[in-house]
Write a structure and sequence with these properties.
Shape: elongated
Distance between the termini: 60 Å
Largest sheet: 5 strands, mixed
Number of helices: 5
Strand content: 25-35%
Order of helices and strands: EEHEEEEEHHHH
Strand order of the largest sheet: 2-3-4-5-6
Number of strands: 7
């Protein structure tokens, strides 16, 4: 088991300029977190840290895969994770509302990047986390069919619509929704007065 110290960078001893770090993220990383949507994984996070006189600039990138719960059947699903973001660490006492700016107390001499790495991995996940067609837990699919009144094909088509919606650009103008199919649960609510 790797030490939590692996994710702590004592930047006070670093020269001004660029420094590169690489972190191997394994199952123990997620086990040590108190609340996490990721159960386990295997990924590499690279950090290019630029030290300046008054701040640090960190450019993080992640590549690998993680296991999380399927949004449809709740069984573990392997999801590729790839992404990058940039954080600026500034010294001072005032708080910032900017999510890319982290204010560090003036007497700070080391940087713990565990939480930053976890956040990078979670925001790099796709919006819908589901198994590929036919890979979901059959027992759970049967229960979904039983209680929703939909066939397996309809459930999978519904997932396809989610993916198509993610890829489409949203139109700023209001559309006439009368032609769109309505979920039977919502249409039943329309009749309540």
């Amino acid at each position: 088991m790797k030490s939590k110290r692996e994710f702590i960078i004592p930047f006070v001893g670093l020269k001004v300029g660029f420094h590169e770090f690489e972190f191997e993220i394994r199952d123990t990383f997620f086990e040590e977190l108190e609340y996490t949507i990721i159960q386990k994984g295997d990924a590499v996070v690279k950090l290019r840290l630029e030290k300046k006189e008054t701040m640090l600039i960190g450019e993080f990138s992640v590549s690998g895969f993680v296991f999380t719960s399927c949004d449809r059947c709740n069984d573990p699903v392997e999801v590729p994770v790839k992404g990058a973001f940039r954080l600026i660490y500034k010294f001072g006492d005032e708080q910032s509302d900017d999510e890319t700016l982290i204010v560090l107390p003036s007497d700070t001499y080391e940087l713990d990047v565990r939480q930053n790495i976890y956040e990078l991995m979670t925001v790099s996940l796709p919006s819908r986390l589901v198994h590929r067609k036919g890979e979901c837990n059959e027992e759970m699919i049967e229960l979904l069919q039983k209680y929703s009144g939909r066939s397996e094909e309809e459930l999978e088509d519904e997932e396809s619509e989610w993916y198509e919606d993610d890829e489409e650009e949203w139109d700023d103008e209001e559309d006439d929704d009368d032609d769109d199919p309505i979920d039977p649960r919502w249409s039943a609510l329309k009749n309540l007065n």
